[in-house]
Structure formats: structure tokens, C-alpha cells
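Trying the structure run again after the queue cleared.
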Amino acid sequence: MQHSTDILENISTGVIALDSDLIVTAINSAGQALLEVSLSRSIGMRANQLVLRASEWQHHLQQALGSNAPLTRRGMPLTLLNGQEIHVDLILNPILGKQGTTGLLVELQAVDRLLRISREESMMHAQETTKSVIRSLAHEIKNPLAGVRGAAQLLAGELTSDHLKEYTEIIIREADRLRDLVDRLLGPRQQLTMLDLNIHEVLEHLRHLLAAETGNQLTIIRDYDPSLPDIPGDRSALIQALLNIMRNALQAADSLDECTITLRTRSQRQFTIGATRHRLVCRIDISDNGPGIPEDIMHAIFIPMVTGRAEGTGLGLAISQSIINRHGGLLECSNAPGKTTFTIYLPMETQHAK
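Done. C-alpha cells:
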């Protein structure tokens, strides 16, 4: 029996056992993560209480139970209790209970998850291609730039007129600015220092920092999961990554006193990042109530130099994603007017950081 339980806990398909009254008697970790319900809360609930707008869900359950025959429904929409809509492949199999009554074994496979994994793989491949082009371009820029700067310094040493030296100082200063810009394009290159850290301490540090920067005009709502254990991470690097995201929200806001940022943490089981499946990850949502990201650049927001602001450099999100990726994690964005959410997934194991 324990062996069967271990198998159910380690598969990525959500599995729910329902009795003859369609009451939940068991649910595995993947099912809890998919429906965003806890084990203690879901056991004893009626199936129609697991989701909102449950009429179609309830109809299929009753149909399979009444006909005592398997039923499959592909791409069925489900609205979670938090209002989020997902699409699942639903497989229902009648099972015989201990008292001879018929119940249901419900299998849920998130179609969104398969699409997300495919999208992530394409995105990671595009990012690696972009990084390769940037590294080559940076090499081609920095070599002649160093020559220009050196020549300006030599010329400054030969000039006697302070007025003319002002021009060489401009050349040197602008060469340094371009060099720094190229370095920022390449992103952080220092080795990560991975230590166990409390992600809520990091978020609280950022909350106090932004409150000081904005004179407490900003509203920050906290929705933390106090049961989260320490996770491995480079504190300085994660602060930079999360601060870039939060400052983007501030810069997009029409006014600071109307800007609200929500910080939410949760644990998530059986989550795949790239080609690696993690038993447990830390999920951090950073949401704001701003105007949203323009649709025409939404697909490219993590590419360097892409920005929706005339005064922006387009480097903040690219640097944030680079840092999260080096932690073995994932950075995603969902966008709508009035609610833009950046979601960070960080593994709770250290071997994926680099």
C-alpha cells in the first residue's frame, strides 16, 4: 500500500479518488498543485467544490458514475478557486469501493503545462542564440572601443589647451559609458554564492527598500506562505533580479499613490523547468495594477534592449531572467490591463545552479 502511495506522489498526473457521492477520498501531490488546493482542505469536499463554475465538470463526473463506464474529455476548461482558468485532459474510470459501491478515479493532465514546457524550450533556445550573438557583438565593439579610448588619452597628453582637452574627456567618458552598456548586455558574470536563505527576508528587504525610495507612497500587499523552508540562492543576485521586476512596475505606474504591488509565495510540487522535473519548487508572484505590457512587445520582453518606455534601456528583465536561469529557475509573465504578474520558480535543490 505504501509503495502505491509513493508512486502516486511522484507522478506528474493529478489523481483524485471520489466515492459514490463524488466526495474526495484521496488526492495526490500533483492534483493538489494543479487545482491549488491542500490535502487537508480537499479531503471530504464534494467534487463540485474543488472548482468554480463546476456544471460541466459535475456533468462528466455524474455521467461516468451513472454509466459505470470510462470517460475521456480533452482540453476541458476548469476555473480554479482563485479564478484562474486552466485546460486539462480529463480521464474518468469507475472503481469499486470497499463497501461494494462504485466511485471514480479521476486523472487530470494539464494541457497548459505541456504547452508551457514547449514554450519554455523554445524560449530558452532563443535566449541562448541571443546571448551568443551579444557575446560576439560585445567582442567586436569592445576591442575598437578600447583603441578609441586609448587614442583619446594619448591625444589629451599632447594637448596644451584646456578647451581642446574637454573634447578628449568627452570621448573618454562616452567610451566608458558604451563599455559599461556592453558589460550590462552581457549580464552578471560572477559565480553565484549559493547559501540557504529565507525568501521572505529577501522580499521584506525589497519592500523596505522600495518604501524608502517612494516615500511610503507605494502600496505593497504581502501574501506569504509561512511554511516555506529556506531555499538555496545567491542573496545579492536574487535581490537584483526581483528589484528589477518591482522597479519596472513603479516606472509603468501612472502615479505612485495609485500603484499596488502584491508579493505572493507558495510551494509547488512536481514542477518541470526545461528538461528537469522538480519534486518541489518555490513560486514567487510579483503582481502590479499598472497598465500592462504592450502586446506588440510581450513576446520579447526578456530580450535585451526591448522596452516599452522611451527612456528605458530594456536590460532589467533580461538581467533578471539571466539570474533566475542561473539558479536553475524560471521567470514567466502573464499580462492584462490592471494586472501584470511576473512569476519566479526556484528549485529547492542546489545542484541546478551555475
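The radius of gyration is 26 Å. Worth checking whether this holds up in the mutant runs.
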